[in-house]
Amino acid sequence: MISRTLVLEVHSFWHVGTGRGEGAGADSVVLRDSNGLPVVPGRQLKGLLRAAARRAWELGLCHNEIETRLFGTPLPDSEGVESLEVEEARFATREGALRIESATLGATPEKKAAWASWARGPAGAAAVRELYRTFASTKIGADGVTADATLRSIEIVVPMTLHATVTGPDDDWPRALSTCLPFVEGVGGHRSRGLGRVTVTLEAP
To answer: For residue 8, what is the enclosing H or E element?
Structure first.
């Protein structure tokens, strides 16, 4: 097995939500690790990379088996499909070759530990809060007046660079994956509003 480091340079504010709000605060808060630092879960990264591989194949830049080989067989859309069919499809899936960890601050285990120590330090709580902002939006009607009950606020994270370890068999998957990475243009939610613009590269550890 070999490992490479996936580097996410997030160029704009971004939002990877938990699906929960905080009462009188934001309607949707971002996902944090146990130290209060922002994180992009490996499962979401896998979805972004799978979509990028499919796009690369559509443009003729890689083999048509690359998506399945690296990320496994996609499950069918469950909408309008009997649950039994979905369960049967799970048993017919092929496991992908890559294991993708969550993206966090710090390129190495030592640097990740340093970020964690900083967040837990005496001034950490106040400093960590500076990584987050609140973004509010509302709907404006044709008359130029705010529509009732449309004000929403979400928590967002400042631009930063995150790192995730990708592990796979000792073959040419790093080259194949690197071909797909330019097609990952955004991370997280609300990308149509300009959030989560990202450049993703693959580096040796």
So the answer is: strand 2-10
